[in-house]
Amino acid sequence: MTDASVTTDTIHPSVVAGEAAHFGRMAQEWWDPKGSSAMLHRLNPVRLRYIRAAIDRHWDLDDRSFTPLAGRRALDMGCGAGLLAEPLARLGASVTAVDAAPESIAVARAHAGAGGLTIDYRAGGVEAVAGETFDLVTSMEVVEHVADPRTFVAALAAAVAPGGLLVMSTPNRTWLSRVALVEGAELTGQIPRGTHDWDKFLTPDELGGMVRDAGLEVGDVTGLTLGTSGFALGASTALDYFLTARRA
User: Which pLDDT value is given to residue 8?
Assistant: First the structure.
């Protein structure tokens, strides 16, 4: 494991120091469903639903199994304090999880330990897994925070083992995402101010092109919508979207 005290911005060029510091300040509240990460707690069940359907479809798994990822390695890149890494471990995967904020990794390790989960948490960027491959690679709402999205996506793709699956999500660069995520959610305190830079959002075509250029085949793009009843999967990608890709 990488020591959480390492100054990651000096050894991991994918990491933007200011972004890591911003999320590091939120680390102690990460597991509080009413704290600064409240929106992530609301979003997580939808993420898990999408990922579960994607892995069941990709590997033709039994959707009734409690441990569909048993015997498989999973990587969660940009894991925060483990909101997705822990469920992936409970689904049976051997999980490696990486985040740029050492403070988040410290909280993640403590929380997983208290829950009896073994997760290989590492502080740093995508470079922390250079040369390793995984059956499942996830990176949720991360690509918009890195120094070079194209290089980051290429590194994620390189981490996907033959026959493996990549699952990503990110906000779309549209008027709706500007109003809802930046001018709305941040100004009203639903998301901490400074979380998003709208200019760094990627459209599905842009992200899909990066994934294809990295040698993977895009299999699905599904929208994430937000209504009066909360987050849901849907046809519209105007706000946010999921993308899956596979290595042949």
Answer: 38
Tell me the two tokens of residue 163: 């026959």
Judge whether 55 and 165 are in contact, CB under 8 Å. Answer: yes
Residues of the chain with pLDDT under 70: 1-11, 19-20, 22, 183-196
> Do 81 and 111 meet the contact criterion of CB atoms below 8 Å apart?
yes
223 class by beta-carbon count within 10 Å (0-12 exposed, 13-18 middle, 19+ buried)? middle
Q: Could you give the 3-state DSSP secondary structure of residue 157?
A: helix
- The domain locations on the chain are 8-167+205-220
Put simply, whether the predicted model's pTM sits higher than 0.85 gets the answer: yes
Q: How far apart are CA 200 and CA 189, in angstroms?
A: 21
Helix (H, G, I), strand (E, B) or coil at 6: coil
Q: Please give the single-letter amino acid code of residue 91.
A: L
- Cα 238 from Cα 225, distance rounded (Å): 8
CB 172 within 8 A of CB 239: yes
Buried b (16+ CB within 10 A) or exposed e, 147-178: eebbebbbbbbbbbbeebbbbbbbbbbbebbb
Strands (E), the chain: 73-77, 94-99, 120-123, 134-140, 160-171, 217-227, 230-234, 240-246
CATH T-level topology, domain 8-167+205-220: Rossmann fold (3.40.50)
Rounded to whole angstroms, how far apart are CA atoms 199 and 105?
Answer: 28
If you compute the radius of gyration of the chain from its CA atoms, what whole number of angstroms results?
A: 17
Sign of CA dihedral 66, 68, 71, 77: negative
Q: Please give the Cα distance from 5 to 161 (Å, whole number).
A: 30
